[in-house]
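Lecture 7 notes. Example A: sequence first, then its structure tokens.
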Amino acid sequence: MAEKTDAPTSSSTDAGSGPRVTDGASAPKAIIKNVDMSEEMQQESVDIASAALEKYNIEKDIAAQIKKEFDRRHGPTWHVVVGKNFGSYVTHEPEKKRIALLGSFPASWALVRPDGTETREIEYTSERQRAIIRIEKTAFAPELAELFFHSEQPTIVSSVKLIQSTDIYSWLAGWLLSSSEEQQQQGDVKIDIICPATDDHIRKYSPQKYTLVRETPELYASVVRPYIESLPPARTRWVTKILSGEAEQKAVLFSSPEFILLPDMKWDRHTIGSLYLVAIARDPTLRSLRDLRLEHVSLLKSIRKEAYRVVQEKWGLPTGSLRMWIHYQPSYYHFHIHIANASYEGPGFGMVVGQAHLLEDVISLLETAATSGIDIFERMTLTYGLGEQHGLYQAMIEAQGSLD
């Protein structure tokens, strides 16, 4: 349920630092809880937040200037890690847990560019449950980023719509103030929320340095495989819920006894040029590239075939229009294949050397090595980039000294 906050007297800034709040009200806070809320509580939250939002009188010229700047610039996604104290507008779907949608953020946050060129961090300690919010747009202006997350000024995100959610992942479309008519259907920004955010989630999205490491079959057996086996089932519960039919069934594009195909959370589901799908194998014993054997070639070829069939039927994309790859190390240890429009060359899809292995190459390696009776991915030394926040980092770095 939304909470009223103490209203400051009046605050204002000049045009260079953001919009002015001419009314004395401050942005209300909405708190995510791990319980469903009743329809009465839901409506009360919406009514309180809506009433507070109506009090804001944002100068139109400043809002238009912000929007123009966003449309003019082209930059990378900003990753935001905050304490769970955000939102000025709460909505709910009967079959889903409570979701707090984006309104305003507290002043304590960490804002980083994925390429590491700029970092703004404030140490934040809170007893509230943590959340990770990712907001994506092709034209984020660094000097305007604070206006998304300011606690004492109105947010420039005017409304949001829940696209989909699982037990910890939520995907939303957001609309900025002064949106053009053409943008009304698609939304100005794409918002991803992970809540509750574990330490592993936060490490993943924290700024970090990467080091190239070599993983021999012996290191896999002594370091990597024990690490994978030590991970609790809860880490991939959201995957098993999809596979079991408990979540995201409306989004599934293809399902068979061997795998399912559905949109990846990184795709906005509108822009075909950045189309991004994911195929998830049903076999729980398949965890990563290391587990692939000749017997899995039929699965890999079936995924390739069905992916092309689906994109041809739904979006008219021909053979050769898709780039398919497998990450190693993957972000989660349940075997999956990334599928994207081959024309997309932007950031955020993890297509870098040392991480992505093209599906076509993987199939060829499996088939070629089989003629010699070799399980190639069991015998190969794999080289990849490992971030210092990864759970394997320390052990793998220490082990590098023992390699030739």
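Example B, a different protein, same format:
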Amino acid sequence: MQNVSLKYKYGRLVLEVPLPSRNEKCLFFLRPMLMSVGDLIKDLQREDPGAAASIFSKGMTRTKLARPHSSDGEHVGSTTLIDALLDKDFQLVLNDAVYDVKAPEKVCTSSEHVMELEDMKHVVHLLHTALHMPEHHLLKERELLEKLDNLKQELTPLEKMKQQLSNTAQFHTSRVVWTGMALLSVQGGALAWLTWWVYSWDVMEPVTYFITYATSIGVFAYYVLTKQASLVHNT
């Protein structure tokens, strides 16, 4: 009597069954989560229309001419998933032949199968990234360089305007500084003339005091109004 084997081949679960009418072995690739016992029986009868197939849980006994019956095993319904059938050994009945089928050593449960699919998707994603990422980087770099060039063109008039405003501000600042220096020089000369040629130091001392005090008040008022020190900053 020929044997029925259930094992993994090329990463897939394969059932090797000898067909009664054709007298040859045929391979059936199983999809445990997607196929039911009824689907497997249909596949068997599609390959061998003369085969009457049924599946029993382990423990079924059968006489040669009688129909199969179960002692401690039970008939497996056609809606039972192959994934549930692989939990333990079972018996495949083809016409008058009974075959003991051992569950494969590695039974891929639903959760494990889902994890394998996720791992496969991840590997495919990594391969796709490795193959297409350099090209994607080049395209992205080209797009960014074009955007940078466009921004530089848009900023060119603004940069020119900024430079003009900076030059104008520097010119006016320099003029104010030199004007202030000239006024201070005139003030110093006038005070010296009044002190030594017109009046005495006793008369001019209170005048210089009040001038210094007024200058301090002016500087403090400038700070209160502008919140900035009255210093000349480099532009």
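Note on Example B: Helices lie at 37-47, 82-85, 110-198, 201-226. The beta strands are 5-9, 12-19, 24-30, 53-57, 60-61, 69-70, 90-94, 97-101.
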